[in-house]
Design a protein that fits this description.
Blueprint lengths: L2 E3 L9 E3 L3 E2 L6 E10 L2 H8 L8 E2 L3 E9 L11 E4 L9 H4 L8 H5 L5 E3 L2 E5 L9 E5 L3 E3 L6 H7 L2 H13 L6 E5 L3 H12 L4 E5 L3 H9 L4 E3 L4 H9 L4 E6 L4 H10 E9 L13 H7 L2 E4 L7 H13 L9 E6 L3 H10 L4 E5 L1
Parallel strand pairs: 5-9, 12-13, 12-15, 13-14, 15-16, 16-17, 18-19
Antiparallel strand pairs: 1-2, 3-8, 4-6, 4-10, 4-19, 6-7, 7-11, 8-9
Helix pairs in contact: 5-6, 5-11
């Protein structure tokens, strides 16, 4: 079958090969025919070595498709079922799951160390234990979440990561208060989803911050009340909050520099939500006095900060009701053969989300 493979960490191009085989099928597993997958910035970060991932590997973790085959012991799925690929499934038995913090379950991360594919040249891993830049993938049954037949594959793919992450940051992690002021730094697919979440919660002012003009324009269509470049943020803070700072600031870039800016843009007693996934050697510096004196809440948000399955259901309900726009997030479409075009669209910021049709 065909799959897009990164041969070595640090390379910036993928090679689409037709000698890749999805492996590991057996009890408790399912084989998924991938129909659509989104390109998330985390894929680029893994390719660059910012996020830990053994190689060679097939990127992609934001996908949807249909069940081809189920292994022994799988009773909740059957061939033909439409599913979203969940890269962070909950085991239901670990301490985090028992506390109700299923987004902190480590079972999914354990999958990342087992090869999902093989080629004549050897084993190939799947990013985050999945690897959706392939025609088929074998995953644990818990990684394949059924969705209704009226949810298109491209919409399902978005729900698999970016939309769940951004919406959840506003709805679950921050629990944005109606009438509040919000700034979102980084307005790709995840940032735009955070903007939609803040709008749903009734935020009075939502300032979108991004260096790319087309993304700023998109943010206004999705609910931002104003959109500025990073060098205009200080003026926006003054105009919107009289210099006090925003009630909520979402950092959706994953860099210490933007996190520091986000901290400084948050009012005293306000909330900084860290959504971007950054590098282990990129340190955010805060002095102990400001940490105490400002009393700002710093809330990391992992995969939307809530129960993933419930978040999927909520997103589909909101989408059906017309309360959120998911189709509008897909600004570009490419076939798997042109995957490197999608990478360029992400790197230059010309795309909110590119859908790779497989």
């Amino acid at each position: 079958m065909r799959a897009a493979v990164l041969h070595e960490i640090g390379q910036d191009k993928l090679e689409v090969l037709d000698d890749v085989e999805a492996v590991g099928f057996g009890p408790g597993k399912v084989r998924v025919r991938v129909r659509a997958t989104g390109l998330c910035h985390s894929d680029l970060s893994a390719m660059a070595g910012v996020l830990p991932q053994p190689g060679p590997f097939v990127p992609g973790h934001e996908g949807a498709g249909e069940i081809v085959e189920v292994g022994d012991g799988v009773s909740t799925l059957k061939p033909g079922d439409r599913v979203v690929v969940c890269w962070l499934p909950a085991c239901g038995a670990c301490p985090a799951c028992k506390r109700g913090q299923t987004q902190l379950c480590l079972a999914g991360f354990m999958n990342a160390g087992t090869p999902n594919f093989k080629r004549p040249a050897g084993d190939v891993f799947g990013f985050a234990g999945t690897g959706t830049f392939a025609e088929e993938v074998v995953v644990d049954a818990g990684c394949a979440v059924p969705i209704p037949d009226d949810v298109p594959f491209d919409i399902g793919a978005l729900i698999g990561c970016g939309v769940t992450t951004g919406l959840g940051a506003a709805l679950n992690t921050a629990d944005v208060e109606a009438g509040s002021s919000v700034a979102v730094i980084g307005c790709g697919g995840v940032g735009i989803s955070a903007i939609q979440g803040a709008r749903l919660k009734g935020a009075a002012e939502i300032v979108a911050v991004d260096p790319v003009a087309s993304r700023r324009e998109s943010a206004l269509r999705f609910g931002a009340t104003r959109a500025v470049s990073p060098d205009e943020l200080a003026d926006a803070k003054q105009q919107v909050t009289a210099g006090e700072g925003f009630d909520y600031v979402f950092e959706v870039v994953g860099k210490s520099a933007t996190a520091r800016t986000a901290y400084e843009t948050t009012r005293r007693g306000g909330t900084l939500v860290v959504v971007g996934a950054g590098a282990m050697d990129d340190f955010l510096q805060l002095n102990m006095f400001e940490l105490f004196f400002d009393e700002k809440r710093i809330l990391p948000s992992m995969y939307g900060g809530g129960d993933v399955l419930r978040s999927y259901e909520r997103t589909i309900t909101l989408w059906r009701a017309g309360r959120i726009d998911l189709a509008g997030l897909i600004t570009h479409r490419v076939p798997l053969a042109d995957i490197n075009e999608a990478l360029d669209q992400m790197r230059t910021g010309t795309a909110l989300r590119t859908c790779i049709e497989i």
